[in-house]
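In keeping with the milestone schedule agreed at the kick-off meeting, the structural modelling team has produced records for the first pair of proteins. Each record is given below as a sequence line and a structure-token line. The laboratory manager (R.T.) confirmed that both were archived under the project's standard naming scheme.
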Amino acid sequence: MTRRDDLDRFYSLLDDLEQRVGGTRKLKTCTGYMDWPDRGVYFFLEPGETRASTDRARVTSVGTHAVSEGSSTSLWDRLKQHYGTGSGSSNHPHGGAHRGSVYRKRVGEAIIEKHELQDDYPDWDKRWSSINRERSVVRDEEYILERRVSTYIREQPFLWVNLDDKPSADSNRATLEQNAIAHLSNFGKRPIDQRGDEWLGRYSQSREIRESGLWNVNHVEENYEEEFLELLEQALNNTTPL
């Protein structure tokens, strides 16, 4: 089987998953009161970005959670970090904390590059430990960009699978995430499903993001084991509607 054949099977499984759960969701309409599985893997799809041969939306980000031993983070905990703050936040409604979400951080970096906002957000890519200013001041300065990031991410349709195993770097969730990223990535490979010129990720400072066509950086240069598709199929068969 070729990588293209495996990609066709991967997206066919996503089609099955979409039917199984009653369609994709968007974070803007999700809450923690929904019947999320405790643990799983998620796949974000970019509006307007499709596979080369069909109008099937392509995956632009893959993620999971609780892969460190002893971690108790749930699937919704991770998705909520990407979602950001809600309307009830007293200081920064519909903003977020990109230092707690690498997805938010990378989207914000690309927005900065695209619109040449480097002078407006000098600390965006810095950890709190390297910023010698009051955190409240930095948060206030970054709030408008955090809102833009929230707007972008909350419009991304996504799918998820229930994969509840013990937190570990060797967990099935970690295996599925790593192999899915390696499989979908065009980094250092003959491109399949070429990324559109208007995709925001093309403005990223990260070569891995620009060339892989994913918001992920880790695992994009790796090879995948096609057996991960069996793991994906098993996981989707254990996934129920919210």
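The second protein of the pair:
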Amino acid sequence: MDRHEVTQLILQNKVNKNLTWKGLANQLGLSKEWVTAGCLGQMTFTPSQAQIVVDYFELPTAALVWLTQVPYKGSLPEAVPTDPLIYRFYELVQVYGTTFKELIHEEFGDGIMSAIDFKMDLEREKNEAGDRVHITLSGKFLPYKTY
């Protein structure tokens, strides 16, 4: 068993048992966004968190060790994503990436937004013209240092 196989089992059992990311997040006391990323192999669970994941998805005990390993981050296999939803985020960065960069540098100076000291919230926003996806990204600003 490896981390990819654990992720595949999680996805299979989620569908087969009609489970939700939010349900697991509530059991863990963490955000659904972070928990989902962890279950998809992008975050590291503590041993006690991993046990809850194993129990929730009814995974084999061998999955415990993989859920606690530091993963190889980055989950997109293609240079340009082909999944339409993921592609829209790629497109968003292609179109607005330079705008993000300019506005962040103007407001904060030369540096980056951390994806390590980071928080994301995703919610449904009701709208008469059709519901909207509301995503808030919040990352610590890390200035480049001179030396």
